[in-house]
Amino acid sequence: MAIVERNQLNVDRNSGADGQERREAVLNIIERVKLEGDAALFDLTEKFDKVKLTELAVQPEEFEEAYRVIDPAVLEAIREAIVNIRDYHQRQVRQSWTTTSETGSMLGQIIRPLERVGIYVPGGTAAYPSSVLMNAIPALVAGVPEIVMTTPPGKDGKLNAAVLAAARELGITEVYKTGGAQAIAALAFGTQTIRRVDKITGPGNAFVAAAKREVFGHVAIDMIAGPSEVVILADETANPVYIAADLLAQAEHDPLASCVLVTTSAKLAEDVQAQVAKQLPELARKEISEQSIRRWGAICVAADLEEAFDIVNELATEHLEVFISDPFAYIGKIKHAGAVFIGENSPVAIGDYFVGPNHVLPTGRTARFSSPLSVDDFIKKTSLIHYSGTDMLKNGHKIAALAHFEGLQAHARSVELRLEE
Question: What's the domain of life for this entry (predicted)?
Answer without folding.
Answer: Bacteria
